[in-house]
What we know:
Elements: E1 3-5, E2 12-14, E3 16-19, H1 31-43, E4 48-50, H2 59-68, E5 77-82, H3 97-111, E6 116-121, H4 130-143, E7 146-152, H5 156-169, E8 176-178, H6 187-197, E9 203-204, H7 228-231, H8 233-239, H9 242-258, H10 262-271, E10 279-281, H11 286-294, H12 302-312
Parallel strand pairs: 3-4, 3-10, 4-5, 5-6, 6-7, 7-8, 8-9
Antiparallel strand pairs: 1-2
Helix pairs in contact: 1-11, 2-3, 4-5, 5-6, 9-12
Amino acid sequence: MQYRRLGDAGMKVSSISLGGWINFGEGKVAQDAAKNVVKTAYDNGINFFDLADIYGKGEAEKQMGAMLADYPRHTLVISTKVFWPMSDDVNDRGLSRKHIMESIDKSLARLGTDYVDIYFCHRADPDTPISETAHAMHDLVTAGKVLYWGTSEWEGWQIAEAYEICKANGWHPPKTEQPQYSMLWRERVESGILPATKPRGIGLVPWSPLAMGMLTGKYDDGVPEDSRFGREPWAKERYLNDENAETVRNLKPIADDLGITRAQLALAWLLKDDGVSSVITGATKAKQVEDNAAASEVTLSADVIAQINEILGG
């Protein structure tokens, strides 16, 4: 496993990380299987585990928190998020100081830890000034409940504004952004996010790097009933079309020549950019974790990157 700094921060995260969105807290994966996924991740050098309070309405934090308790806390990088409504109460949502301060204590209790390494603002909040959110996050870092804070799915200008506000006031600035980013979902990040984050030392930790499974090649010959696209039509509608299918098939010879899977190729392609600190993967089986973790050791030559980019259209 390779490790990278979180942006320009001193803390290092595994270049491949494990997220809890698709398999924790909602009963999608049996408890024993989920525990084996976490163990396999840890045994393969993954130290970064990403969660959110909204995943299973707190149940993912409880489930993974209990599993991570088996390992020394200092060897883990645990993140969670705040923004989405956690109840019908008018203030139990968003990025107000009130919601942030109350939510962190609830998340820490569910996770069974005194602090989280990274606390993400899960979306930008149109009802709360960025300065209020940034000040609250600074105070959490000062209090030791959060070591670093970041954003998720913010626009580049919002990230830049938060950073500049923090710098002007001597507050702890954001150190990471978590956007959707993959070979099939590029434009927003490459044109709007990286130009804002990279010069400011803010590291990207992309989610859905395999385009919800599309980039693995499992849909080359249709949609298996027991697959994610089979279970979740919205995911199928987002990614499964003739253009994407042809792109994924055209990537196979490159992966084959390198002796790797298309999933590993897709992860390594993201990691080619030093503006990316870690790639957040999902897994329901230990074998998937092992395959994903192996992508950390793949280095793509300039020629291979050029071939890939030609297939991707630039």
